[in-house]
Design brief:
alpha/beta; GMP Synthetase, Chain A, domain 3; Rossmann fold; Helicase, Ruva Protein, domain 3; 4 domains; six-stranded mixed sheet; four-stranded mixed sheet; binds adenosine-5'-triphosphate
Length: 456
């Protein structure tokens, strides 16, 4: 790809990210070269490199691929005055890890040139009810003691921490058991290497490499489903390692039995050890994660000013996955530091309007009305209808309050969905519940219970 082609591609990116984001994030990056599947860019600061990787990495990769380029990953190097600042790379690569230098944000290894993310450690993994079992199992494996369950199979939806836990295991093993040879790679990378070995007639080397590891970790194993010869090779590798009593750790986006087009014999092997599920996050875990990110950020930028209630608001409103939550916070920090202002609710809603709109789809006004009606044992038609007796009016106000809190609908919109009421009625209802929440323990409890039920 030439610089001119990159220029044309930037237009597509402009259309995708919008003028403001483009000016702030995309414009400063400069295409350097594309070699061996890696598109390299120069950036003025490490911060921009990190931000673009996290927020636009996939998008850039997508546009590059769409334009016909063969690109596996992108990488950023800081060109300003600090030649020592490390380049940043995307996470989906492989690495054989055998040193404990964590100085760079993403560490490359000489052997494969692939990264383990230094942020993905156990001490930065926030534990809550939804992930406590997965965390405990990962920590056990990371001790590097005798193999008790093989494989450890971690599964869960997008962005819930599977990769984080796998990297954490690798880091931990490196520091406590540097004698062990740990190989972490994505299933895609496994296939890529297998195909390359076939093409270069280096299957013996391939087999030897994979059979000589002490701990093999394969991320996103669902990727090999339907790819027959890769599955076959994976099956042999798996068996050879289990026979030698070597630990295997696998992750996927769903349980082994539910991965379509995965051979039955592989499914049953994968179920032989310990299968642990990372559940969707709950409000408390999301708040804990946000808090820990703020603490980490504050350690670097003590001038950060964050109004009360912002984290709670984000934890309520963004329940899709942790990656989205993290991305939202990073964007907020970046925006606030650019404009040099305190992070207020207004700034948050402004800066994250697209994310908030996207995640709002999760809880609808109708769902809230239904749940609240059920909870107070009234009919939905009475909740929306004209009757003003307390038995209906209070649940109606509770529902309005939750609509205001859990969706991004405006007051007039909410009013319309409550039988065409005026926005001042909604405003009054929301205010009333806010007051009651502080005075009436029962209302506070009802609100909490309903919120949990709606977010579950
Ligand atoms: N419990 C947690 N504590 C702190 N950070 C977390 C937690 N769970 C997820 N994250 C963060 O969320 C982001 C996404 O996590 P990760 O990449 O591990 O997800 P994943 O389950 O592997 O997703 P995918 O299915 O897309 O590969 C990472 O930046 C990770 O650090």
């Amino acid at each position: 790809m030439t610089k001119e082609q990159w220029g044309a591609l930037r237009q597509d990116l402009l259309n995708s990210v919008g003028q403001n984001n483009f000016k702030t994030w995309i414009e400063p990056i400069e295409f350097a070269e594309l070699t061996e599947g890696v598109a390299r860019f120069n950036v003025p600061t490490n911060f921009i490199g990190n931000y673009v990787t996290q927020n636009y990495g996939d998008l850039i990769l997508h546009h590059l691929t769409k334009s016909g380029e063969r690109v596996q990953r992108i990488s950023f190097s800081v060109v300003a005055n600090s030649p020592k600042t490390p380049p940043v790379a995307l996470k989906s690569d492989a690495s054989i890890t055998n040193s404990s230098d964590k100085s760079s944000s993403v560490r490359d290894t000489a052997m494969t040139g692939a990264p383990l993310d230094s942020r993905f450690t156990f001490d930065r993994f926030v534990v809550g009810k939804p992930n406590e079992l997965a965390n405990a199992a990962a920590r056990r494996v990371a001790e590097g003691g005798p193999v008790t369950f093989n494989p450890l199979f971690l599964y869960g939806g997008v962005g819930l921490g599977k990769t984080h836990l796998m990297h954490a295991i690798a880091w931990e093993l490196q520091s406590h058991r540097p004698d062990l040879n740990v190989l972490y790679l994505s299933a895609e990378q496994f296939m890529y290497r297998f195909v390359q070995a076939l093409r270069d007639r280096k299957m013996m080397d391939f087999k030897q490499l994979f059979r000589s590891v002490d701990i093999l970790m394969v991320d996103d194993v669902q990727f090999i489903a339907g790819k027959d010869s890769t599955q076959e090779e994976f099956f042999h590798t798996f068996n050879a390692l289990v026979d030698q009593n070597k630990q295997i750790i696998i992750s996927a986006d769903r349980a082994p039995g539910e991965i379509k087009d995965l051979e039955e014999r592989i499914k049953s092997r994968l179920q032989c050890g310990l299968v642990v599920d990372l559940h969707p996050t709950d409000y408390e875990l999301r708040l804990g994660i946000l808090q820990s990110k703020v603490d980490a950020y504050r350690a670097q930028y003590p001038e950060l000013q964050l109004q009360d209630g912002i984290l709670e608001f984000l934890a309520h409103r963004i329940s899709t996955n942790v990656r989205v939550l993290e991305g939202a916070l990073t964007r907020l920090f970046a925006f606030a530091s650019l404009v040099g202002r305190e992070i207020t609710m207004e700034l948050t809603q402004d800066c994250l309007s697209d994310v908030l709109r996207a995640s709002e789809r999760k809880i609808s006004v109708e769902e809230i009305q239904r749940k609240v009606a059920e909870h107070y044992n009234i009919r939905l038609s009475d909740m929306i209808g004209p009757k003003r007796v307390r038995t209906f009016a209070r649940p109606r106000q509770v529902a309005m309050f939750l609509c205001k809190q859990l969706t991004s609908r405006s007051l007039p919109e909410i009013g319309r969905r409550f039988g065409g009421r005026d926005h001042t009625t909604v405003m009054h209802g929301v205010k009333r519940i806010e007051e009651l929440r502080g005075q009436d323990g029962q209302i506070a409890e009802d609100l909490e219970m309903l919120r949990r039920a709606l977010e579950a």
